[in-house]
Model the fold of this input.
Amino acid sequence: MRHYARYILLPVHFSKEILSNSFSATFSYISNQNSLLDETQEQKETILELKAQLMGYNALQKEYDRLSRFVSLKENDFASLDFQVSRIVSVVNNSNLKRVFINKGEVDGIKVGQPVLSYDAVVGQIIDVMPGYSEILFVTDPIHALPVLNERTGDQFIAEGTTNINFLRVVVNTPNHNFEVEDIILTSGLGQAFPRNYPVGTVDRIENRPERNETHIWVSTFANFSDIDLVGIYLLPEATKPDLYYIK
Done:
């Protein structure tokens, strides 16, 4: 009888062992999956941290590059310029005008009329000064006018601001102008406000207005006024009294 009982109970023993092994395997699998999920989450967090660090590094590198260009500008093409690098801290849209403020003011030697430059183009003029900050008028604002010259011909004109933030306009009262598309436009230095031969932009298009006996020369600025954050304030000699250029 015992002999037969052993054979009867043997499958039950094996079944119990199989269930136990299956449970252990399942528990081990679930544990491994949870560990993998934890590792994956940690890896995701690490990747996000590395991306944030990389973005910070790229921002620092970009700012370093811009500052280096200002230094290079002072050391090479315009070594005589004395300027303060400043940051645009606020831009307030007011109709077609932009009120632009920088983080340098009277205590930093900033004065009304001083020209504002980027490392590669004219930006504007200081129009108001407070102790710790100042207001800039962009050269592309409709009420500003900038004395310029055509690099190719040497002819001098006044470039007016427009309602397009990245364009200036030269109005010539004759159809017999001497402008060509892609002519380079520079500052003329008239009025002592802006250094002579500083980059302004290039002629983008020429529109004839025969009904008014005018030709409109549209100048695309080298400065990207939609993406400026660092500017240089040209510190004029003490005796210089720069003209402020407004269109009446």
